[in-house]
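User
New here, explain this?
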Amino acid sequence: MDAMMLVTDRAPAGKLAVTSPFDGRELDSVPTAGPKHVDDALAVAYALFRDRSGWLSVPERVEILSKTAEIMLSQLDELCLLAASEGGKPLLDSKVEVIRAIDGVHLCIEKLRAHAGSVIPLGTTKASIGRTAFTRKEPIGVVVAVSAFNHPLNLIVHQVGPAVATGCPVIVKPAADTPLSCLRFVQILREAGLPDGWCQVMITENREAAEKLVTDSRVGFFSFIGSAKVGWMLRSKLAPGTRCALEHGGVAPVILAEPYDQDAALASIAKGGFYHAGQVCVSVQRVYVPGNEARNFARALAKIAAALKVGAPEDASTEVGPLIRPAEVDRVASWVDEAVAKGAELLCGGEKISDSCYAPTVLLEPAADTKVSTLEIFGPVVCVYGYDDVADAVRRANALPVAFQAAVFCQDIDTATRLCQELDASAVMINDHSAFRDDVMPFAGLRESGLGVGGIPYTMEDMQIDKMMVIKHT
């Protein structure tokens, strides 16, 4: 993709080769932007926001988003293949992602049509008699969105779609590993009628340019999806007044409590743990099983994991694809090796299949102080632990500084409800894996796992202000 998706006359700072995470072949190259491009892009976006006479009306935004969804649907196969090729998620799962992304555009439209202010109950005090007050929605300002690699189309829709819907000029920086789906989505927005300046794409040439983009005083809202280390660092450097939402990761716990359906739990946990090679921020990582059943459960899970087909993401039969970079394969391997060296029982996997793929792995009873027990592995590894008392399982599940989504498998509603209340999580799935998500749901990391609430309707609220009008009358 040769076109610079910025409104600027400057030549690109350079070029970035985009390669397949599976076999390293070059898929395309994209232009990169430096600090001067950052200034250009922010100047264009901020000028659009300051010129209220030029704001896009609600009907214009609805029409643009409706056409966007139509174009995306007409290019479904192309978008699926593009996302799979650059991100490594198997084709079947990438198709689910693209369908979700199209639905996400429709969610933006639905929320936009229904968005409204509220009436403020004046007249309840002597001072407020003779006054009427109500609020209306307005865009918060320029949105800067920094995204992650693991859902290269749907994450962009979650950040850019709400900005377009709410009338905010947006500059989006996709992950350097997976910029192609983002570029294609913005091209589609422009084909659907969105004027160029309202959405610009920037692949920064270095950290200096990226930080300059995020911390500029013209930014009204900062949306970040990525590592906690980077997200919290950038938040600390935001200009005064810039609002933000941060979505980081977790080390998702799952508790099996008697009575539970073992077959259903096995199938669900296998999907939630090995989907996209575990590269999901709420992927199943820690599974707590009654002690006398833990070994048998782990062995049964290992049997499922060992049978999963690992291969090229473009192959329709592939169930587990590559990790995003060879360095991540090496990191996952080192974490598993550490766990085994400290006493974990390796039931399957535990080896590099290639420079890009790691075998789906099940570990039984890793030590509490190992990396696989304390940090987000972001790889195809599930850890199983036995417990004697469910209260101890809850304590261990809650012991980390991260908290996101969790899950409970239990056929007793009273026990399931109690565990839901006791787990530190923003969402608890009952009889389903921790990685379940529908895009209409709130999606919020707690503690070090994030700030604010994601999910398209909630992001749209974040990107708007409620402006109040008070009318004095007789």
Remarks:
- The chain has two domains: 14-248+449-472, 252-438.
- The radius of gyration is 24 Å.
- The chain has 15 helices and 20 strands.
- Residues 91-114 form the longest helix (24 residues).
